[in-house]
Amino acid sequence: MKYVCGKCGHSEDVTTKKMKCDCGGLWKLDYQPPRFDLSQVDKNTWSLFRYRKFMALTDDTWEKVTLGEGMTPIIPFDEHTYFKMDYFMPTLSFKDRGAAVLVAFLKSQGVDKVVQDSSGNAGNSVAAYCGRVGIDCEIFVPEGTSDKKINMIEAHGAKATVVPGNRDHCADVCRAKVEQEGVCYANHVYNPFFYEGTKTYIYETYEQLGKIPGHIFVPLGNGTLFIGIMKGLEELLVSGAIEKMPQVVIVQSEVCQPFVKAMEKKLSDVEIEPVERTLAEGIAIGVPMRSEEILEYIYKYDVQGITIPEDRILPARGKIARQGIYCEHTTAAVYAGYEHYCEKYGKPQEALLSMCGAGLKSDHS
């Protein structure tokens, strides 16, 4: 198994310590899974690793790492929408899907220390799984990150380093440490093993519903869920499990919408977007590192985009909460985006929305 640079095509073995190609491009994974077949799912394993025959795993280290992540329920919210309850996870966010696979890979490679930058959820998840297998961990978070997320990171034994400035600056500071000290960069955007975990979102949906809903709404910041979803859908399509791609709709904040703007202008890459404060902190990414790869998916499959005004996030969160679902603000933004989409284009016959993070992680009023 090899890494392949998404920019120049250069390949290296996955044992390399380089966080990216020498040309600056990010790694993709040279891995083609078998044709997806539900009969090959290990139904005796109650975690996302039940799909391991279709995942790029190097050995059985996952058995020491897993915390039972995945297999989150799908519930009908109303007659037109399904919610996949992905905050029913060990660290209360969907990021556990990717972190479990990434940390299993790093542990199998003998890594004993990592750093990562995060707006909170991914850092918390990586910290938890590193704690599980004894990997020393430092997480860099931008100022303004919820105290609850920081407390969770530290509870897992990791060091939380708060960086003044926005999310993109936080990433720059963390990557500078990687370059200077040579420590392993366990980043959910850079390392493609993370997407081997997030693609199981689609495997589970197909197994649970026996189909893929006609519309899928996805929050888009750095694209960790989006890329996983598109990989999973492609694999189902190639396998013949589904006949066509659903209509995927990306959701971005009005105060940070680099992909929606690029789509409107038909650009091959995004323009750098200044990041303003937003309740939807998880998708406030002005410089998404896999932007070209994400736009390739967007144009290839006619993905639609929708933005949400800031003043619609809390009302959406309240509406969801009154039906017993207490989600964090970025997750509420997805439902706000869905409502906005319905107003513009009409209500889809059926739609799947991810409840990405639990409400207890938010500290905004």
UniProtKB/TrEMBL annotation:
Q: Name one Pfam family in it.
A: PALP
Do the record's keywords include Lyase? yes
Residue ranges of every copy of the Tryptophan synthase beta chain-like PALP domain listed in the record: 65-357
A molecular function (GO) held by this record is:
threonine deaminase activity
Which coenzymes or cofactors are required? pyridoxal 5'-phosphate
Provide the GO biological process annotations. isoleucine biosynthetic process; L-serine catabolic process; L-threonine catabolic process
Query: Which UniProt keywords are given for this protein, alphabetically ordered?
Result: Lyase, Pyridoxal phosphate
Family annotation (Gene3D superfamilies): 3.40.50.1100
Q: Which InterPro entries match?
A: Ser/Thr_Dehydratase, Ser/Thr_deHydtase_PyrdxlP-BS, TrpB-like_PALP, TrpB-like_PALP_sf
What name does UniProt use for this protein? Answer: Threonine synthase
Q: Which species does this protein come from?
A: Anaerovibrio lipolyticus
